[in-house]
Amino acid sequence: MFYFTYILECADKSFYVGCTNNLERRLEQHNNSKWGAHFTKLRRPVVLRYFEKFTTLKEARRRETEIKGWRREKKLNLINKNSLR
Fold first, then answer.
1. May I ask the CATH architecture of the domain 3-81?
2. Where's the GIY-YIG domain (predicted)?
């Protein structure tokens, strides 16, 4: 099993950082179900802009915490260097 740390871009251009063990399912939840995060429910639709893959949940959570602490500009630089667009 793998774990993912990801960055979503919301409809209002804000970013959401999270982690999961099923990226497809989680993106679907963020966009369409009551199980999405409250933050993204208010800012739908969301688009996956970046993700990283890890072998342990501990690594994914650590990276999530790190990225959440960054300013918007640093997140944009990470996204632009590894664009999914």
1. 3-Layer(aba) Sandwich (3.40)
2. 1-78
